[in-house]
Known about the structure:
Largest sheet of chain A: 13 strands, antiparallel
Radius of gyration of chain A: 19 Å
Number of helices of chain A: 4
Distance between the termini of chain A: 48 Å
Low-confidence stretches of chain A: 114-120, 167-177
Oligomer: homodimer
Strand content of chain A: 25-35%
Mean pLDDT of chain A: 87
Amino acid sequence: MRAMTSEFDREIASEPTGADTYGGMFGNGFTIGGGVNGGLLLAAVGRACSERLEDVGHTQPLTIAATYLSAAGPGPFVVTTDLVRQGRTSSVLRATLSQPEGAVDEEAVAARDGRADLTAVDRLTTLATFAAGLPADQPHEAPDGSLLPTAALPDIPPVEDCVGRGTGPQVMGGAPGAVELLERVDVRLDPRCAGFAVGRPSMRGVVQGWVRWADGTEPDVMSLLFMVDTLPPVSFDLGMPGWAPTVELTAYVRGVPAAGWLCVRHETTHVAGGHFEEDARVWDSAGRLVAQSRQLARLPRPLAGS
Amino acid sequence: MRAMTSEFDREIASEPTGADTYGGMFGNGFTIGGGVNGGLLLAAVGRACSERLEDVGHTQPLTIAATYLSAAGPGPFVVTTDLVRQGRTSSVLRATLSQPEGAVDEEAVAARDGRADLTAVDRLTTLATFAAGLPADQPHEAPDGSLLPTAALPDIPPVEDCVGRGTGPQVMGGAPGAVELLERVDVRLDPRCAGFAVGRPSMRGVVQGWVRWADGTEPDVMSLLFMVDTLPPVSFDLGMPGWAPTVELTAYVRGVPAAGWLCVRHETTHVAGGHFEEDARVWDSAGRLVAQSRQLARLPRPLAGS
């Protein structure tokens, strides 16, 4: 275990407050428009589940399916865990992150996404599988000795040719309000996917770039639960900036990331009926796929004035 | 609502047995190697959730994330539902399907997948979002009038050029024991993906084909929850026949299917650490994407004698 020193680690940390409950505190560092980023909530749940399963050694997330129930804000949070099955090599938990009523600046969040249920205590509920170990590095061989499929790094320019914050905060903004989050994550977008910032989305439904912690912390497994939902939604690349609420997101951890930049690619293949799916893939600096996620999200309503 | 006449409808049907519980009975019709097919369990949970939400009109599944806990067998089942959030246009439920101890032919199932937890009562636990309506048919337009991405039907030969059961039951078998399921679903595999049946898998990690109910019932939304997990796993196409246990499966319903054959495509992009992800997509006879799913599954152990 590395020392708990990074802001991310402090944000997602929690202490036991009962047999199956863990309490922590969100600061202001990972907010967008007043609300805490959804990936941070997922990582906080992941951390609490990992603590819950420490005695049986199932500390590594394999899959987490999450339904977002209401917007979270800075302030205290509680993760309640419910052990569904404890197996030999993996365990299944239900885990729910909640906040006390009144803990959130409801006006700021309502201005962002207009939800009517801001007094709800539950923010995020999940169904998770944790395992003793994570996939080994080596590619698998079929019985005949041939290599099995692995997802290769996409076609993406090197970090130095990608677009960082220096080109203007609007590249990563879009949601009204301050985007504190962007002080925490160093994002370099593929210029071919960054046209939305200047009113020229590619209309392909792809957003990809390089990401790393701005404070120099190297990525770990819990970071992956955050990084799968960090880039702007693919709806930005489809000419629809604005808040795209997640209906459901399932994350799959496929490996332990090497140190260095992570490559993240978001894409959609199908927009229909007011929803789109967004698939995220994360590769580490060695070019290995280390995480995947899929979410179903609602198309944004047009922004005021746009 | 159509009349409840098909065997599939009867299999997944349940009646209220309490405020939040629904009881039903699995027959022998949808078994593989003695166990009830996982897609049938998912559809049974979907049906019970739909009943649970009938009074608020949220009867259409939008997303269901499922973790399989133990093997199910013919016999009685109970679905317990827990309303997590009731919104204006959608509701979130946790729902768990269980069977009484001793309801399953444990020896038959153990021979298939060797799980040690066959006395567990819970078979499948889920986190589901149901909505008032399903996506409309028309493709979406971006604000500038351009069409947004939609997933087109894959390159697949017409039904009459695909491989049905007439070429031998081994095409769709692979798990030891009888495959009653194949009497219920008419499957026609793309010949380019059917080589595994004769020891020549394509090694691409793709299995696709046309499916419909053998009894002539037209597909409905609940059928989609079954059809996302009906074809042989992509591991068959990677030279690894055998049982590939699902760790987690999330299904997304994207539309109401038209009458006629459904096209189902399973593919994987990444095999590592003993796991692979399998993405399934289902198109209706009008070529519209109507469902997607992703599962993380364990690679099969080699079959005895292979």
